[in-house]
Amino acid sequence: MLEVKGLKLRLNGKPVINGLNLEVKKGRIHGLLGVNGTGKTTLANLLMGIGYPDEGSIIFEGRDITKCTISERARMGITLAWQEPARFEGLSIKEYLKLSRNLDSNESESYLWMVGLSPAEYLNRAVDVSLSGGERKRVELASVLAMKPKLAILDEPDSGIDVISLPHIMNGIVEMSKQGSAVLLITHSETGIEIANRVSVMCAGKIINTGAPEEMCQWFKDNCRTCDHIGEPAHEGA
Amino acid sequence: MIVVNEYEALLEAYGKAGGSLDALRSKEVGNLVIHKNRVLSANEVKGIKVETEETETGVNIYFLVEEGAKIKYPVHLCFGVLPKEGLQEITLKVEAQADSEVTVIAHCIFPNAINVIHKMDADIKIGNNAKFCYQETHYHGESGGVKVIPKAKIRVGKKGIWQSTFTLIEGCVGMLDYDFEIFGEEKSINELLVKVFGKKEDDIKIVEKIHLDGREARGLAKSRLVLNDNAKAVVMGETYGNAPFARGHVDCIEIVNGEGVIARAIPVVYVSDKQAKVTHEAAIGSIDKKQMQTLMARGLNEEEAVDVIVKGILR
After folding, report:
1. In this complex, which of B296, B308, B312 lies closest to A70 when CB atoms are compared?
2. What is the distance between the alpha carbons of residues A170 and A165, in angstroms, rounded to a whole number?
3. Is residue B119 part of a domain?
4. Residue ranges per domain, chain A?
5. Cβ of A100 under 8 Å from any chain B Cβ?
6. How many domains would you assign to chain B?
7. Residue B276 domain flag
8. Candidate from A69, A89, A147 with C-beta closest to B298
9. Is pTM, for the whole model, over 0.90?
């Protein structure tokens, strides 16, 4: 479904994405594991069309979308949930969920239930600063679910999340996959990555290993937790 | 006959502008309809007394909410000038007596204005423990030929509540010179909110002043502006904490969305009591890039995303 080939990006003269290759398959959760500063968010942005690479290509369903805009990619079925989602004064959660599709109220309610939020309490609240970080992330996930995307890029959905919100978010991601979406689950922590079908480890702007979740978590612990390759050429993959 | 025609024409404009015609026709709902300097309709309800005096250029209004009266339905006021030219000067004296409670919804309608001036000079007294919510919404045509000059001095008694919203987002503003000043006594709540969508050559000046003179008085001076084309705006939000434990906040956001726009915010926070606290935040700038990207990642195009953000801010 998604193929990234030889992606490169330099920022301020430094390579941030450094010849990255990645494949995400339809209906699968693909984990992307890497310590802070390895270029995960930059990659998420490039996949969504927020900025363009210097080299390489992004192929989605057989089509080269490297030069496509954010809106064009969204209309193809790609979406992104930000690590720190934007807040919107005056926009209700109900309206936010309906941005991509005209949902009826039952559907809107079902997406909130999926992320553990009570519709009676939340549907008419604003997507603004009155929501806690965990609530906002759950709303973001509900909005991605509501879009029924072909590919959802989730940038650190688990970071900064309280223990009550985390299982709801993870359930929401699994639900998305069950509904047929491919998910790129980006995270810096092994916690939660076990829901992925496959995991790639990212270091210094490139993928250095890919495999089964358990194996990759162990490999990540052994090789990356003490590694200081941020901004430097990556160590060789196994 | 002329009055009837004016009344029907104004009601038609009022309905088109989103006003509730049922409310104006209901005997259970207090209302007052004024076209230029003519009082076309007035309906008092229990607990409310309204006296009017037509002058050469407008109407003097005395509006009383009796002590302890809790008015069930919002009272509707409708001010309008339908011709292309005209002057309307409204002098408004409001007295909400102790323990009363009312919501007043005012619609100001100038759909055809080329050279219309609408002035309001209000002297408002909110009694102890009384609550007064005032919502003023303007409907202008696209020519920008209106000068709107609303001025109000509001005195809010102990534990009294004043909450007002001034909204001008339909049509062109023209020239707006808004100046509301509140003096809040002990434990009063004093809130001013202004929402304006400026475009073309609109010229906007907003002054919101809150004096927190009583112990534990609270105040919020909030403004939300979106400016397109060559619109110019200055917002002066001022809050004075003059008593122990008075708490005030000035909050201004101006979205700049046009090449010729000039936006200024001049917040004043002043404290003359060591136990009072006043804060402010002001942000002027273009539409937030991350908000745009988020909406576009849900499939909206750039224009649709701007529309969603602007409508939210001005809601």
Report:
1. B296
2. 9
3. yes
4. 2-223
5. yes
6. 1
7. yes
8. A147
9. no
- Residue B294 included in any domain: no
A116 touches A148 (CB < 8 A): no
* Contact (CB<8Å) B293/A50: yes
If we measure between CA atoms, which residue out of B292, B296, B293, B304 comes closest to residue A74? B296
Of residues B138, B203, B122, B199, the one with CA closest to residue B170:
B138
A82 and B314 in contact by Cβ < 8 A?
no
Fold assignment, A2-223: Rossmann fold (3.40.50)
How far is CA B70 from each of CA B75, B189, B214, B266, B283, rounded to the nearest angstrom?
Answer: 12, 18, 25, 38, 39
A89 touches chain B (CB under 8 A): yes
Residues A127/A128/A133/A137 CA torsion (nearest 10 deg)? 20
Q: Is residue B107 one of the residues assigned to a domain?
A: yes
Give the pLDDT score at A229: 60
What's the domain range around B215? 2-288
Weakest mean pLDDT among A36-40, B90-94, B153-157: A36-40
Q: What is the band of A238 on the pLDDT scale with cuts at 50, 70, 90? A: very low
Question: Other C-beta atoms within 10 Å of B47: how many?
Answer: 19
Per-residue confidence band for B3, with pLDDT thresholds at 50, 70 and 90 = low
Dihedral of alpha carbons A52, A53, A56, A59, sign? negative
Range picked from A228-232, B110-114, B149-153, B257-261 for highest mean pLDDT: B149-153
What is the residue type of B282? Answer: A
Of B54, B138, B49, B141, give the one whose Cα is nearest residue B89. Answer: B54
Contact: A71, B315; criterion CB under 8 Å? no
Q: Do A71 and B299 touch (CB under 8 A)?
A: yes
Helical (H) or strand (E) element with A223: helix A213-223
Token pair of B218 as six digits? 């609270």
Q: Which of B249, B294, B295, B302 to mutate to test the interface with A (most CBs of A within 10 A)?
A: B294
Q: A76 touching B, CB under 8 A?
A: no
Q: Answer whether B290 sits within 8 Å of A86, measured CB to CB.
A: yes
Q: Give the CB-side neighbour count of residue B146, counting CA atoms within 13 A.
A: 31
Residue B194: CB partners within 8 Å, gap ≥ 6? B165, B166, B178, B206, B208, B222, B223, B224, B225, B235
CB atoms within 10 A of CB B18: 10
Residue pair A55/A7 in contact (Cβ under 8 Å)? The answer is: yes
Check the CA dihedral A162-A163-A165-A169 and report its sign: positive
pLDDT at position A204 is 87
Q: Do B294 and A90 touch (CB under 8 A)?
A: no
**Which residues of chain B have a CB within 8 Å of the CB of A75?**
299
Report pLDDT digits (tens) over B164-223.
999 999 899 999 999 999 999 999 999 999 999 999 999 999 999 999 999 999 999 999
